[in-house]
TrEMBL record:
Pfam families: SMC_N. The keyword Nucleotide-binding applies. It comes from Candidatus Enterococcus willemsii. It comes from the Bacteria. It is found in: Cytoplasm. This is DNA replication and repair protein RecF. ATP binds at G30, E31, N32, A33, Q34, G35, K36, T37. InterPro entries: DNA-binding_RecF, DNA-binding_RecF_CS, P-loop_NTPase, RecF/RecN/SMC_N, RecF_2. The gene is recF. Belongs to the RecF family. The RecF protein is involved in DNA metabolism; it is required for DNA replication and normal SOS inducibility. RecF binds preferentially to single-stranded, linear DNA. It also seems to bind ATP. The keyword DNA damage applies. SUPFAM superfamilies: P-loop containing nucleoside triphosphate hydrolases. Residues 3-365 form the RecF/RecN/SMC N-terminal domain.
Length: 374
């Protein structure tokens, strides 16, 4: 899979921009705050329909405009697919092959991307919410059904939390309605849990391969999915549903008191172990960064395994955050395998380590110059 071109209209600091990508390594070179990351962000938004930097779509649209547009052509298995994304103050509109897509799950997955930014190095040490977001983003690209189940789960979760609060405030006792919401929560939540568990096992396999390579076979990486529903490994969906029902029954009284749902995928987490040691708690900063790097790069092979296509890799100023050994490992892993877009303030991290010739765009004050830039 590769992105052949992209066009921006009234996106961030770009009135109009058209770029064609000729090579497998594309570098956006320039000082900070010039617009490099905005271009990379536009590729991410074209793929995922939302930004990794903000939850406000209004921020993506130029302040004096009502709409922003991102279009591009994805090439995969000898077919070319035009993608169109329109961002307005009222919402988003997506098109595949010029045909409007009513469902988000029909659009996401057309262009698979993996983003690696400096904040991703805190994947291991950061909050559980960060790791849940990571899971949802990656599984959603591979499995559109997961995206649907997740959205439905989040809707029911919100309704259930509101009703628990209502029960406490108004002393209502409509147990039937609460049971209906609980059944729906279990139905969609179990599918989310089961998909996450399967994904994490495959992720662990690929991440451990990479981690052993970086550590010269001295370190073995294990990733555990820790669920509020139960820590056992489920053999099928029915087992997950049974465990979920039991978990909710155990916290029933606490939920009434705290007015919030206390079990489900919205409370789950990942724990990383190196040679049996919890990396979050006892690992060095170097081990935490190596683990994060291994996990992010593992997605490349995992997506290829699941979809038959390598994803597009976005590296946002991440080279400067890595030491020489990890830089080399990163570049060796991606070289000749995936189309890579990289932002950097200097070529020092790249020029002596790459054997392929990059396509370079120079970015200064919102202007992009270079071959195939209009």
């Amino acid at each position: 899979m590769r992105l052949n071109d992209i066009q921006l209209q009234d996106f961030r600091n770009y009135d109009s921009l058209s770029l064609s990508f000729k090579k497998n390594l594309v570098i956006f070179l320039g000082e900070n705050a010039q617009g490099k990351t905005n271009v990379l962000e536009s590729i991410f938004v074209l793929a995922m329909t939302r930004s990794h930097r903000t939850t406000s779509e209004q921020e993506l649209i130029q302040w004096d405009q009502n709409q922003a547009a991102i279009t591009g052509t994805v090439e995969k298995k000898h077919t070319k697919v035009p993608l169109e994304l329109y961002l307005t103050k009222k919402g988003r509109k997506t098109k595949v092959n010029h045909i409007e897509q009513k469902k988000l799950s029909s659009y996401i997955g057309q262009l698979n991307v993996i983003l690696f930014a400096p904040e991703d190095l805190s994947l291991v040490k950061g909050s559980p919410q960060l790791r849940r977001k990571f899971l949802d983003m990656e599984i959603g690209q591979i499995d559109p059904v997961y995206l649907y189940d997740l959205v439905q789960y989040q809707k029911v979760l919100k309704q259930r939390n509101q009703y628990l609060k209502q029960l406490a405030e108004n002393k209502q006792t409509d147990e039937v309605y609460l049971e209906v919401l609980t059944e729906q929560l279990v139905e969609f939540g179990s599918k989310v849990l089961f998909a996450r568990q399967k994904f994490v096992k495959r992720l662990e396999y690929w991440a451990n391969q990479l981690h052993q390579k970086i550590s010269q076979s001295k370190e073995h990486l294990v990733i555990d999915y820790i669920s509020s529903v139960g820590e056992e490994h489920w053999a099928n969906l029915q087992e997950v549903q049974t465990a979920f029902v039991q978990a909710l029954e155990k916290v029933k009284q606490k939920e009434r008191f705290r007015q919030v749902t206390l079990a489900g995928p919205h409370r789950d987490d990942l724990i990383f172990f190196i040679n049996g040691k919890n990396v979050q708690t006892y690992g060095s900063q170097g081990q935490q960064r190596t683990t994060a790097l291994s996990v992010k790069l593992a997605e490349i092979d995992l997506m290829k395994e699941e979809t038959g296509e390598y994803p597009v890799l976005l590296l946002d100023d991440v080279m400067s955050e890595l030491d020489d050994a990890r830089q080399l490992h990163l570049l060796e892993t991606i070289e000749g395998k995936v189309q890579t877009f990289l932002t950097t303030t200097t070529l020092e991290h790249v020029k002596d380590k790459m054997t392929v010739e990059p396509q370079i765009f120079y970015v200064k004050q919102g202007q992009v110059e270079g071959e195939s830039a209009e």
